[in-house]
Amino acid sequence: MQFGLNFFPVIDPARKSAPQYYQETIQLALLAESSGFEHVQTVEHYGSPYGGYCPDPVTLLTAIAARTSTIRLTTGAVIAAFNHPLKTAARLAMLDNLSGGRLDAGFGRGFLPDEFAWFQVPMAESRARFAEMVDACVALWSEESVTWTGDFYRFGPVSLLPRPVQRPHPPVFVASATSAESCAAAGKAGHHLQVVPSVTSREQLREMLAAYREAWAASAHPGRPRIQIKYTCYLSEDRAEALDAAERYERNYVEHMAGAVAGWAGARSDQYPGYEKFVDKVRDYDFAASLAARKVLAGTPAEVRDQLAAIAQWYGDDLTVSIQVNPGHMPYEQSERALRLFADHVMAEV
Q1: pLDDT band at 173 (very low <50, low <70, confident <90, very high)
Q2: Rounded to an integer, what distance in angstroms lies between the CA atom of residue 97 and that of residue 163?
Q3: What mean pLDDT comes out for the span 124-141?
Q4: pLDDT at 39
Q5: Quick check: 139 and 288 in contact, CB under 8 A?
Q6: InterPro entries attached here (predicted)?
Q7: For 233, which DSSP code?
Q8: Which CATH superfamily, name and number, covers 2-349?
Q9: pLDDT, tens digit, for every residue of 68-77?
């Protein structure tokens, strides 16, 4: 099992400013690199406290790349429907060059109705746009000259500059929330996988991972599949302190997520079966149940080690666990202490 550091800014600007958040993020990334973490990653969201401090993961990861030398840099994930493949491939290739070949390129479909409305993109097109975006970026990275004629994009002939450092192209990750079908498609294509256990059940996630692994094996891809699984992590020598912070900041997450997913109350899409239930899931959130189901890591180092052991038993020990230690408006000192505890007393002993 490997470990990475995940940044998902669910922050009320009145509680922490953007400059402060970015400075703290870079400092934590530096500490993660010196502590032996495998990667740092961040998201793409717009227009609300639910991720809105990171409308462009490439910009934030470029700032981190300038201060680091070994840790991998992961988009978790670029939203395919809101970006043009020529520009996306070029910007990601530039980051791969600036970082000396440390990019892991994660792509996602997006799932918030408001964001699709703001970009004037029909949600019904999200799956097809996603597939075309990934295929076009891989072609632009891998081929000397590309003429693209797709359902949504037409361009070329064009030779992408700069060429990515990693050949034939940077590792591609696919973000999947609830769909075993999407996981199987990723495995068949030879892409890596990003999942978030907080939005699905244990049984459903096990089905997703089984579909992914089976599709990868059946397609006989070289190398091994990489699976990133994302958790918030609250760590302290004092159990009560860790659990108090966990409940407080998880509720902050849920409250801001409620605003972000409110559009599902009136939206329906065959591309997102069951997503209208997000509103009910958020309303019915129960922290104790979430902790018991291992959807969040919280407690003393020994307790978090036990939680990770259960996760490995359920989902496999070939995972890369990507933890978030600075949720919401948590004070930097508390986040840094949690990261140091994780590195010294969890990661070193798992």
Answers
A1: very high
A2: 8
A3: 96
A4: 98
A5: no
A6: Bact_Lucif_Oxidored, Luciferase-like_dom, Luciferase-like_sf
A7: E
A8: Luciferase-like domain (3.20.20.30)
A9: 999 999 999 9
Q: Percentage of the chain surpassing pLDDT 70? A: 100
Specify the pTM.
0.94
Those residues whose C-beta lies under 8 Å from the C-beta of residue 299, and which sit 6 or more positions away, are 234, 235, 239, 242, 243, 307
Element of type H or E holding 24: helix 18-34
Q: Residue 50 burial by CB count (10 A; 0-12/13-18/19+): exposed, middle or buried?
A: buried
d(CA 340, CA 148): 47
Amino acid residing at 28? L
Tokens coding 341: 């505890």
Region for residue 213 given its phi and psi (left: phi exceeds 0; alpha: psi -120 to 50; beta: otherwise): alpha
Q: List, as own/partner pairs, every contact residues 33-36 make where C-beta atoms lie below 8 angstroms and the sequence separation is at least 24, other chains included.
A: 33/68, 33/69, 33/70, 33/71, 35/339, 35/340, 35/343, 35/347, 36/343, 36/347
The residue ranges of every structural domain in the chain are 2-349
